[in-house]
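Hey, resending since the last one bounced:
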Amino acid sequence: MGLWEHSLGTAIASGVIAKALHVPDPEEVSVAGLLHDIGKVVVPVKMPDTYQRICHRIEHTTLSIGEVEKEILGFDHSRIGMWLADEWNFPPNLTKPIIYHQTPERAKEAGIQTAIVHLADILIRAKGFGFGRDPWVPEINKKAWNLLGFSMNDAEEVVFKLGEELFHVDGLDWHGDRQP
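The structure tokens again:
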């Protein structure tokens, strides 16, 4: 299971969270979740040797993929995603979560959407659904959590609903294992 499954899981989780919070256009938030790591697709395609160096470094360090990308490229996949989103004239509700899903407190526009994608990304990484290209699960940003106004009860309900949604995705169960 790879990046596609991680992105699909993040899209589903983003939609579940957006609906739980009664955010307008939860489908748009789902699209932002689907596209949040679009920059990760460019490096292996356009710079395969550099991508191999990044993968090798990740295997031999405790740094996240973003940190390794910055070390090797001078920027990370969020920056590549920003360039793509700008080129394709995406609206802020899609662009900001792509750019700031790792640092949601920096989003000056689309803060709620960015915080949702941030939380969805972490939930999907924590459950091991797909593979975000490094084994680390970051901490939930406290400002993002507070912006969403989630209680632990809300979080439990979202995790339960998310489990149901992921179970029905293309025969995949909560842990990403294919069902017969």
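The first helix runs from residue 3 to 20.

Sorry for the duplicate.
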